[in-house]
Amino acid sequence: MKYLSTRRRHPAAKPLILVLALFLVGAVYALVIPSSQVSAAPGLSQQVQEGKALFQVSCSSCHGLNGEGTSQGPSLVGVGAASVDFQMGTGRMPMARPGQQAPRKDSEFSPEEISAISSYVATLGPGPGIPAASVVDPSKLTDEELARGGDLFKTNCSACHNVSGQGGALPNGKYAPPLTGVQPVHIYEAMRIGPQQMPVFSKNVITDEDATQIIGYLETVQNRNPGGGLSLGNLGPVTEGLWAWVVGIGGLVVIATWIASKGARSK
Questions:
Q1: Can you tell me the distance from the alpha carbon of 107 to that of 116, in angstroms, rounded to the nearest whole number?
Q2: Which of 6, 123, 249, 262 keeps 20 to 30 A from 159, CA to CA?
Q3: 149: which residues sit within 8 A by CB, 6+ positions away?
């Protein structure tokens, strides 16, 4: 009994056992968790980091350091990469000052910078993504598909943008911008995100195939040969009726005045 009582553990034994236990727990956890959570694409990670740095310098004053939104700008959580690519690619963002409607202008950022910021915002929450190049390329469409794109555009879009995409006035001093000179990718993105007064057209309403055909129709209208005569702004019966009124009724007034003056002289 005296021999057993004199056998004591070393003072460092307990800390050593604790460290060993923690090491074993960590090793087991590393083996159990899914491998997909451990690694990420190095290129994408680098792009996201660059986008975050650009975002905090150029966008955070209105949208918050983490895109949570402020009194000056809405939250960007869940808007997706397509929204950023559209707003920045068309020069609508950043805005010099808050206004009723942001006009289209030259972008202040390079395509690489826009892509980086879009990638960062996409990590804040799921949202519409930037389309593949094949979706916005109408070069392989047939005449029948282009005609169907025209029908889709006239049904869903012409009430605001005019039958030829020239734009038009909306209530409360707002307007639907013209679609001339707009990149196909931005037309697609506008359908999916619904910027400003525009409604959102989900893939359940307008499929990617429909969107490609609408883009093809707009390109056809913008590049067509007028075939002689005056286009009158391609605004349809409104301008045609106006000119018919001005020229027709105006001409009748001039003729009536001339006849009246001749009659007065003959007396």
A1: 15
A2: 249
A3: 138, 141, 210, 212, 213, 214, 215, 216, 217, 218
Side chain identity at residue 198, one-letter code: M
Nearest to 211 by CA among 231, 195, 225, 191: 191
Q: Give me the residue label for tokens 């009659």.
A: 263
Domain-by-domain residue ranges, the chain? 42-122, 133-224
Question: Side chain identity at 184, as an amino acid letter?
Answer: P
- The rounded Cα 189 to chain-centroid distance in angstroms is 4
Q: Give the three-class secondary structure for 99.
A: coil
Q: What token pair was written down for 79?
A: 């808007």
Residue 81: CB atoms within 10 Å: 22
CA gap 30, 38 in Å, rounded? 9
- The CATH homologous superfamily to which domain 42-122 belongs is Cytochrome c-like domain (1.10.760.10)
Residue 186 assigned to a binding site: no
Task: Taking the CA atoms of 84, 90, 91 and 93 in sequence, report the sign of the dihedral they define.
Answer: negative
**β-bridge mates for residue 175, sequence order:** 169
**Class of 133-224 in CATH:** mainly alpha
**Is 201 labeled as ligand-binding?**
no
* pLDDT tens digits along 208-254: 999 999 999 999 998 876 655 556 565 556 666 776 778 778 888 88
pTM here is: 0.71
Start-to-end Cα distance in the chain: 154
Q: Please name the residue that has the structure tokens 């402020």.
A: 70
